[in-house]
C-alpha cells in the first residue's frame, strides 16, 4: 500500500472523471456545463501533468505527452469561454458547443493516459 | 542534456503542484465570494477576472481592487491568498536555487560539458590521469608543444589552479575517478584523435588500474605509466604497458653516467631536459662525479637505486638509515638520519667525496646537506626533492645536483611523446664508449658553438620526404652522408644520431649507408638553423642540383636533363 502510488492514481482518475463530468450533457446547452467543473478539470489536469514529470521511461514520456494534450485543450476551452463572455455577457450556444467539443477532445487524451497507466500497472505485476 | 532536464523537472514537482493548488484555491475563492458594486448590487467575479486578480496579487504587483472596491469578506480572503501565494513562490524559487547548488546537478552539467568538448576535438590529444606536480609539468610541456591535453583528477580543487596557468593550448578537465572505466571512455580513449594515455597519479596501484583498463578497452592505445614500486611495475609490464617510468631508476642510471661517462650525461641532459632544465653544478657536468667514498643517507627507493647504479670498482658506498634492518641495508650501515653531525662523522664524512640525501622528507634532506657541507666543504652534494615547491630551498642550499622526482618523470614522458627517436637513441647510447662519446660531443660542440643542440627527425616516406623518395625511386642512391652535410651549403650541417629501419636501430649510422623507404633518421643540429635534410626533403630541385650534377639554371633545361638521366638509368 504505497501512499505515493495511491495519490498518483487518485489524481489521474480524478482528472478523467472531472473531464467527463464537464463534457457530459447536450453539446450547446449552457445549463448542462458548469464553469466550475471546467475549472476543476483544468486544475486537476495541471497537477497531474506536474506529477508525471521526470519519468525517463518510454511509457512515462507518452503518458506525459497525453497529459500535456489535455492541458492544452482545456486551456483552449477556458480561453474560448472567457473570450466569448467578454464584458460579462452570457455564453452563446455556438461558443458553448466549441468549449464542450474541446473538452471532449481532452477527454479522449485523458482516457488514453489512463489506459497507458493501467497497462503499466499490469506490466509491473508480472 | 535530457539528463539534466529530467533532474530539474523532478525537483520542481512539489513546488509546481503547490503553486498550482494555491492559485486554484485563490481563484475559486474569488469567484465564489460575492462583491458589492457602487450601487449596492451584489456581483460576482467570473473566472477570468478572478484569475487576473490572483495573478497580479501573486506576483506582488498589486494593481488594486478591480473593478470595484472589495467587501470585507473579499478582503479577508485576499489576505489569506497573499500570504499563501508568496510562500508558494518563495518555496519554488528556493528549490530552483538549491538545485543549482546541488552536487549531483553540478557534476551532471560538468560531465555533459566535458563529453561535448571531447567530441569536438579535431587535433591529436593525450589523456593525462592525475594532476599532481608531475601532471602539471607534463601539461605545461604538452601545451608548449601544441598538443591538446585532457586531464582527469580525483580532486577538482587541484584542477582549479589550471585556470591560472594560461596555457597556449587550453586543457579540457574533468574532476572524477579515473579508475571508473566510464570516465576513461568519456575522456575519449576510443576517439580517433587520441594518441596516448599517461598515468601519473601519486598511487602506483591507481596507475596500474588505469593501464589495465586502457589496454582492455583499446589495446592499440599507447600507455605510459609512472611507477615507483617494482612489483607494480612488473605487473604493468606483464600486460604490455608501453613505457613504465620509475623516476629513481631513471635518475640513478643517469647518475651512474656521471661517474663512468660524464660526456654522455651531458648529451642526455641536452636531449631530455629540453622542457625544464635540471639543476646541476657546471663543474660536475664537465668533470663528472668523483669516485671514492660515497655516503647515502636514507635507504629508500632512491637510495637503493643510487647504490645499485654506483656498483662499480671505484666507489665504496656507506649507507646511513634510520632502520637499516627493516630497509634491507647491507652490513656496515650506520643507524641514524644523517641530520646530526655525529652520524655523518661516523659514516666518514671527512673523507667522503659525495653525499646523497635520499630520504623522502625534504626538511631532513636539507638538514643533511647543510650539515655535510659544514663538516666537509669540498663534498659534492646530491639532494632529493619530494615536493616541487621546496626546490628553491635546495638551490639556496647550493646543492650540486638536485633530483626532482616529478621533473624526471615529466621530462621522460614528454620526450617519449614528442621525440620517440630520441628515447631510442638515449637507450642505445649507453653502449657508447667514453672515447666515442667524446668524439660525438666534440662534433656537436663544434656544430653548435657550445650552445645547446636540438634534434630533428627525418622520415623517408611520401609525406615526410617526397623529394628524397622520388630521387630514390628513380634508382639513384642517396646516402646518410649526403643528407647530413654538403660543402655547397655551409651552416646546414646536421649530425645523424640514429637510423631506424624496420624496427632495427643503428646508432651513429655509417655515412655510406643508402637511404630506403620507411627509414627514420634522427639529426642533431643547431638551434634555429634549417638542416640540410630539412631543405632536401621536399625540394626536388635542390636534390637535383646537389646530387644529380644538374648545373642548369633554366627550369626547362633542368627538367630535360632529369628526363635524360631517368632514361639512361632505365
Strand content of chain B: 5-15%
How confident is the prediction overall: mean pLDDT of chain B? Answer: 84
- Tell me the radius of gyration of chain A: 16 Å
How far apart the termini of chain B lie comes to 66 Å
What would you note in describing this structure?
- The complex is a heterodimer of chains A (126) and B (570).
- Chain A is mainly α and 126 residues long.
- Chain A has helices at residues 3-23, 35-51, 58-84, 93-125.
- Chain A has one domain (3-125).
- Helices cover 78% and strands 0% of the residues of chain A.
- In chain A, α1 packs antiparallel against α2, α1 (3-23) runs antiparallel to α4 (93-125) and α2 (35-51) runs antiparallel to α3 (58-84).
- Chain B is of the alpha/beta class and 570 residues long.
- Chain B has four domains: 2-101, Helix Hairpins (Orthogonal Bundle); 122-245, Rossmann fold, CATH 3.40.50; 248-418, Rossmann fold; 421-569, Alpha-Beta Plaits (2-Layer Sandwich), CATH 3.30.70.
- Chain B has 25 helices and 18 strands.
- The mean pLDDT of chain B is 84.
- The chains are: A mainly alpha (126), B alpha/beta (570).
Sum up the structure in keywords:
heterodimer; A: 126 residues; mainly alpha; 4 helices; B: alpha/beta; Helix Hairpins; Rossmann fold; 6-stranded parallel sheet; 25 helices; 15% strand
Helix/strand layout:
The complex is a heterodimer of chains A (126) and B (570).
Chain A: H1 3-23, H2 35-51, H3 58-84, H4 93-125
Chain B: H1 2-32, E1 35-36, E2 42-43, H2 47-58, H3 72-101, H4 103-119, E3 125-129, H5 133-145, E4 148-153, H6 156-160, E5 172-175, H7 181-186, E6 194-199, H8 204-217, E7 223-226, H9 230-238, E8 243-245, H10 247-260, H11 262-272, H12 282-287, E9 292-297, H13 301-309, E10 315-321, H14 324-327, E11 334-335, H15 341-347, E12 354-357, H16 362-375, E13 380-385, H17 391-396, E14 401-404, H18 405-418, H19 420-429, H20 434-448, E15 454-459, H21 466-473, H22 480-484, E16 495-501, E17 504-507, E18 520-525, H23 532-536, H24 540-547, H25 555-569
